[in-house]
């Protein structure tokens, strides 16, 4: 899984930082998901969590390497003797000095290996978190995309109703011109057209707001005149609840993330117990110095003159030192005991979190499956209702055209058709939202 996620992250980095959608163009669900994966701020934060986990793994392996220090110093000592116990000690001339020092230290214990296991478990958990964040983002974008499609379809339907209402007004004016209708019927047709235009305006505004909210989740600005496209076939569910539960236990990213956090807690408990183990310490040190007497007397020996000439970079090395020791922690003010209890409580909490997520998964998958079945049946019923209402409206329009029915009868038939067609549109997208909710609960695509 880690290799796959690394490949996906590398692909995301190599892609353009911001996807561009041309004004007046179209946007599919697949394009929206691709844009969101590269620009959504919440998802990018989850990706940064994996970067921190990788740094912790490198740091854990780095504990096998010794820590090393190097120093170089320059010094000056005034030429004045110091008095110790009535005796003057020290040179009477100013002295310049320089020195360097190199030291290395290393410590190995059972906890050194535990830290590596803990860091690797943390990286696995970060991978699982990224996968869960990516799938949750997919679910959120899909739901908002479907909502935007639904409002777009409703707005388009309202525009067709405006066209029909305008034709009915023209027919009413024509019939009033030949005396088969009164001016009151014409006024009613004009009011009906105005109300329908207001309804269409509100529907278009709702659709525009839904698209703005979609692009907020995508993380980019919305271009003008954009149209959403999607190929969303409807079919009766063919899978069973048992099959879905089996797939969910194996594929649900949220459950995997919680299980990975449990493994991190177990590794943390081992690390806390490892604080009771001894530590093997190694150290090495080497240094060198040189000095110069500022006011060298005329009686100085050739050796003193040669020593002065060595300053500041011709050093005399001191004996190097190597040491090895074994340290055993005995008492640190109950700090280890406290950390062990905290680690044990964290592991127990992680176990309960996994159990809670498993119960939540069962409830989510079962309810989503039942909702999908009900949504499919409702969509079929609403489709039949819309077909009947459309036929009734056509019949009412024909009767009104030949003068066999009143304008009130036509208005009633149109209102029933509008309600039935709107319910059909809502039922269709309710089915697709239920399907997306089931995929989110299972943790993988089902079509």
From TrEMBL:
<keyword id="KW-0812">Transmembrane</keyword>
<keyword id="KW-0732">Signal</keyword>
<keyword id="KW-0472">Membrane</keyword>
<dbReference type="InterPro" id="IPR051906">
    <property type="entry name" value="TolC-like"/>
</dbReference>
<keyword id="KW-0813">Transport</keyword>
<keyword id="KW-1134">Transmembrane beta strand</keyword>
<keyword id="KW-0998">Cell outer membrane</keyword>
<dbReference type="InterPro" id="IPR003423">
    <property type="entry name" value="OMP_efflux"/>
</dbReference>
<dbReference type="GO" id="GO:1990281">
    <property type="term" value="C:efflux pump complex"/>
</dbReference>
<protein>
    <submittedName>
        <fullName>TolC family protein</fullName>
    </submittedName>
</protein>
<dbReference type="Pfam" id="PF02321">
    <property type="entry name" value="OEP"/>
</dbReference>
<comment type="similarity">
    <text>Belongs to the outer membrane factor (OMF) (TC 1.B.17) family.</text>
</comment>
<dbReference type="GO" id="GO:0009279">
    <property type="term" value="C:cell outer membrane"/>
</dbReference>
<dbReference type="GO" id="GO:0015562">
    <property type="term" value="F:efflux transmembrane transporter activity"/>
</dbReference>
<feature type="signal peptide">
    <location>
        <begin position="1"/>
        <end position="19"/>
    </location>
</feature>
<dbReference type="GO" id="GO:0015288">
    <property type="term" value="F:porin activity"/>
</dbReference>
């Amino acid at each position: 899984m880690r290799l796959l996620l690394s490949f996906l992250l590398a692909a995301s980095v190599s892609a353009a930082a911001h996807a561009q959608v041309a004004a007046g163009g179209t946007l599919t669900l697949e394009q929206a998901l691709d844009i969101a994966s590269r620009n959504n701020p919440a998802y990018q934060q989850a990706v940064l969590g994996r970067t921190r986990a990788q740094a912790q793994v490198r740091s854990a392996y780095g504990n096998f390497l010794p820590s090393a220090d190097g120093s170089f110093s320059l010094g000056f000592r005034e030429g004045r003797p110091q008095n110790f116990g009535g005796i003057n000690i020290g040179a009477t001339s100013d002295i310049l000095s320089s020195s360097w020092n190199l030291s290395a230290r290393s410590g190995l214990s059972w906890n050194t290996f535990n830290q590596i296991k803990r860091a690797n478990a943390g990286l696995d958990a970060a991978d699982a978190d990224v996968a869960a964040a990516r799938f949750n983002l997919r679910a959120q974008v899909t739901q908002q995309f479907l909502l935007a499609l639904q409002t777009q379809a409703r707005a388009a339907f309202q525009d067709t109703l405006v066209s029909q209402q305008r034709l009915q007004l023209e027919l009413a004016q024509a019939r009033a011109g030949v005396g088969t209708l009164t001016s009151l019927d014409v006024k009613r047709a004009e009011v009906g057209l105005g109300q329908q235009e207001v309804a269409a305006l509100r529907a278009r505004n709702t659709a525009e707001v839904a698209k703005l909210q979609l692009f907020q989740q995508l993380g980019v600005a919305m271009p003008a005149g954009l149209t959403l496209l999607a190929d969303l076939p409807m079919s009766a569910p063919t899978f069973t609840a048992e099959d879905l539960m089996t797939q969910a236990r194996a594929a649900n990213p949220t459950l995997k993330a919680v299980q990975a956090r449990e493994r991190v807690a177990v590794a943390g408990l081992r690390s806390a117990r490892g604080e009771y183990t001894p530590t093997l310490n190694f150290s090495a040190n080497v240094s060198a110095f040189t000095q110069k007497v500022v006011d060298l007397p005329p009686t100085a020996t050739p050796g003193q003159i040669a020593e002065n000439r060595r300053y500041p970079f011709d050093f005399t090395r001191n004996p190097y030192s190597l040491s090895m020791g074994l340290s055993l922690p005995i008492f640190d003010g109950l700090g280890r005991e406290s950390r062990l209890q905290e680690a044990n409580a964290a592991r127990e909490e992680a176990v309960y979190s996994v159990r809670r997520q498993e119960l939540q998964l069962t409830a989510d998958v079962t309810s989503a499956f039942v909702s999908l079945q009900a949504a499919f049946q409702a969509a079929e019923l609403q489709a039949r209702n819309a077909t009947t209402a459309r036929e009734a409206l056509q019949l009412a329009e024909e009767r009104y055209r030949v003068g066999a029915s009143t304008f009130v009868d036509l208005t009633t038939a149109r209102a029933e058709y509008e309600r039935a067609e709107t319910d059909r549109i809502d039922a269709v997208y309710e089915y697709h939202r239920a399907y997306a909710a089931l995929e989110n609960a299972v943790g993988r695509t089902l079509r």
